[in-house]
What does this fold into?
Amino acid sequence: MGKPTKKAESYKTAETDRPLKAKKKAMKRVAKLPLPAGLPAPNELKPPRPVDPTASAMTNFRSTAGAEAAILDALWSTVEARRQAGDIEHSHSARLLARGTPKVAQKLGEEAVECVIEATQGNRHATIMESADLLYHLVVLWVDAGIRPEEVWAELARRQGISGIAEKAARPKGLLRAAQTTKLP
It folds into this structure.
């Protein structure tokens, strides 16, 4: 076969770039979080990940009924161990934690936005993948803040059976002052 024509090349590029272009367009519509002073600008977008629909998204964590919280507990332990080891050359978690709380929080926000975009566009599989990224970055934030998963589980257990309206009404008034509002949505 000969060299592809320009028309064939541009068609191929347009087809492969279509999901990335749609994601970039959607990202422009979302307000960006302010970047803390002194941090380098983040990459615009991650390239799309290759997806094998037959592969399990959690090859290392085989879930059984009721073991979902244990998966997050194990993930927290792994991230904490990576933080303690401090090997920023070989550990994404250690590298992210070494960049400080503002970067950790920014990454969590970026993953939340990506998850919202995929959900809004109705991309079920991509929403699952972005949800996993979001949970990972939430766990990194917990490690950075010194929060153990049991503390979050206890708060969720405390709220169980309380209506959202009643729970919001019971929030401390200082939270309302900090938010500079008389009511929260």
Notes: The radius of gyration is 21 Å. The domain at 68-154 is CATH 1.10.287.1080 (Helix Hairpins). Confidence is low (pLDDT under 50) at residues 4-17, 39-64. The first helix runs from residue 6 to 29.
